[in-house]
Amino acid sequence: MKAILTAAALTATALPALAFDPANMSEAEKAAFGEAVRDYLMANPDVLVESINVLEERRVADEAKNDKLLVQNNKDAIFDDGHSWVGGNPEGDVTLVEFIDYRCGVCKKVNPDLEKLISADGNIRWILKEFPILTQESDLAARFAVAVQQEAGADAYKKAHDALMASRGPVNLDSLTALAGELGVDDKAVLNRMNTEEVSAVLRKNRQLAEQMSVMGTPTFIIGGEMLRGVPADGLQGAIARARAENG
């Protein structure tokens, strides 16, 4: 009997392996196979978790690769649009671009840490792009900031930006008039400019760029060739270091 079993085993191993083809399975075989897979996953749930993690890692990697292509294809509009405020170190070795909404709670929360990071580093070129998407107050605040820049220059814009980021009150014509006075700029000139084509064109170009980049929320950062949709749990330092490594 033992010899017969041994011969059978040898014969089986000598045959070519059959390809697994669900299309050739009968309905009963498909049902049995499905039940067997279900039983296996129920008995080994870690396998399912591992598979989900692998799929998520692949998705994140594919998204990052696609984002790099988006940055490369839109680099002029991102890094040198001619209208966005540029601060930090304009000659810095790394450029950090931020899409902002002045009514965005996360933007407000991260702003003090971002200011400290840029100041302490000393070699980061910082670009701000107004992207008002949350409320009508978002649009008013963005128009005010752009109008201040166009009327009074980059330094006045930065003061307006800081004030709007720090503000927790409502944004309306009264509050913006008061803010213009605090900034020392001509409130009538700024408020009159807010609804001009010059200001609208800036916001329109920013919105078009955001659509091309698939930017759906604020804050969104572009650091070097990498896009960060939100604030990473470990902060922005990692992306800055990667950008410097890529620059050599």
Please explain how this structure is put together:
- With 248 residues, the protein is an alpha+beta fold.
- It has helices at 2-14, 27-43, 45-73, 75-79, 105-121, 136-152, 154-166, 173-183, 187-193, 197-212, 237-247, and strands spanning 85-88, 94-100, 124-130, 220-223, 226-229.
- Strand 4 (220-223) and strand 5 (226-229) form a beta hairpin.
- Helix 6 runs antiparallel to helix 7 and helix 6 (136-152) crosses helix 9 (187-193).
- The N and C termini lie far apart (72 Å).
- The model is unreliable at 1-17 (pLDDT under 50).
Radius of gyration: 28 Å
Summarize the helix and strand pattern as letters: HHHHEEHEHHHHHEEH
Tell me, briefly, the overall form. elongated
Mean pLDDT: 88
The total of helices stands at: 11
User: Largest sheet, if any?
Assistant: 5 strands, mixed
**What is the structural class?**
alpha+beta
Within the largest sheet, what's the order of strands? 1-3-2-4-5
- Can you count the beta strands? 5
Q: Helix fraction?
A: 55-70%
Distance between the termini: 72 Å
Q: Which runs of at least 5 residues are low in confidence (pLDDT < 50)? A: 1-17
Strand content: 5-15%
Summarize the structure.
The chain is of the alpha+beta class and 248 residues long.
Task: Summarize the SSE layout with pairings.
Layout: H1 2-14, H2 27-43, H3 45-73, H4 75-79, E1 85-88, E2 94-100, H5 105-121, E3 124-130, H6 136-152, H7 154-166, H8 173-183, H9 187-193, H10 197-212, E4 220-223, E5 226-229, H11 237-247
